TrEMBL record:
Organism name: Fulvimarina endophytica
Keyword Methyltransferase: yes
Gene Ontology annotations of biological process type: methylation
UniProt KW keywords: Cytoplasm, Methyltransferase, Ribonucleoprotein, Ribosomal protein, S-adenosyl-L-methionine, Transferase
Protein name: Ribosomal protein L11 methyltransferase
Record's function text: Methylates ribosomal protein L11.
Name of a matching Pfam family: PrmA
Length: 288
């Protein structure tokens, strides 16, 4: 059973709780979220979605991690682990590391030091509310801070959320692709609206099959949040378009598909460096 534990307070409190609980529940991959639940009164809430054994309760764990009395902790059982739909319904800002993905109506939520990505829920996937997007953003921040890539590909860009994050964080050019012409259009608009229209080039392409994708190869960093099946099929293409020591961040992979995807990429000579679980999804970091 999954339970949403939450505590309400001011924005500052909510951010402090978030910072406190994140490292505690990181290893189990629990999704954590800050949401503004009452705009008029500036009430914020920090929540963690924790796996709880049948008949058990983890309010104490949550209270200890946040440093609040257990009486302040609210709880709500999530049916069918469908926390995503829950979060999506609100479309409140989502934090992943330094990134804050938010809609236009939540510009106020952007704090100093945040790298804001403004996305309207629309025709293209990627509002930041999905664990796979959050997983990619988290690994992007870690990896780009470690070493700035020169050439970067965001394959399956959807709303361009990851490409915008990359361009804003690293200030480098990003090639973004999608199989879906509507997503390509939305991605272009979002990149421009986020002030990185000149850094993010968007092209329509199926996988790596595009003259533009070839021209801009090899890539120091390829990010692809697609699905396990196509990722496995494309493993040889990833290897072929990756620069020596280049890095690959993959998501859209269910926990149960983890080993199969890793095997397909290891078979192409890549090294598996890290797995970041969020809910039932995993995000992988591999290296050439
Ligand atoms: N990158 C965004 C969107 C991920 S959704 C995020 O992380 O939130 C996956 C996107 O990949 C969709 O927009 C879909 O149209 C696109 N896609 C699926 N298969 C693809 C393929 N083979 N080549 C390119 N894009 C693909």
């Amino acid at each position: 059973m999954q339970v949403r534990y939450y505590v309400k307070g001011t924005k500052l409190e909510a951010e402090a709780w978030y910072a406190a609980i994140e490292p505690v529940f990181e290893d189990e991959g629990a999704p954590i979220a800050i949401t503004e639940i009452d705009e008029a009164n500036a009430v914020f809430e920090t929540a963690a979605y924790l796996d709880v054994p049948e008949g058990g309760d983890r309010a104490g764990d949550f209270a200890r991690a946040a440093g609040v009395p257990v009486e302040r902790v609210g709880r709500e059982a999530i049916e069918n682990k469908d926390w995503m739909a829950e979060v999506l319904a609100g479309l409140k800002p989502v934090r992943a590391g330094r990134f804050l993905v938010h809609g236009a109506h939540d510009r106020d939520a952007v704090a100093e030091g945040d790298i804001a990505i403004e996305i309207e829920a629309g025709m293209a996937f990627g509002t930041g509310h999905h664990g796979t997007t959050a997983g990619c953003l988290t690994l992007i921040e870690e990896e780009v801070s470690r070493r700035l890539p020169r050439s970067t590909l965001d394959l399956g860009t959807g709303s361009a959320v990851l490409a915008i994050g990359l361009a804003k964080l690293g200030g480098m050019a990003v090639l973004a692709t999608d199989i879906d012409p509507v997503a390509v259009e939305v991605a272009r608009q979002n990149a421009a609206a986020n002030g990185v229209g000149t850094l993010v080039e968007v092209v329509e392409a199926v996988g790596f099959a595009s003259a533009r994708v070839e021209e801009r190869a090899p890539y120091d960093l390829i990010v692809a949040n697609v699905l396990a099946g196509p990722l496995k099929e494309m493993a040889p293409d990833f290897a072929r378009h990756l620069a020596p020591q280049g890095r690959v961040i993959l998501s859209g992979i269910l926990d149960s598909q983890h080993d199969g995807v890793v095997e397909a990429f290891v078979a192409e000579g890549l090294k598996h460096e890290k797995t970041l679980p969020i809910g039932e999804w995993v995000t992988l970091l591999l290296r050439g």
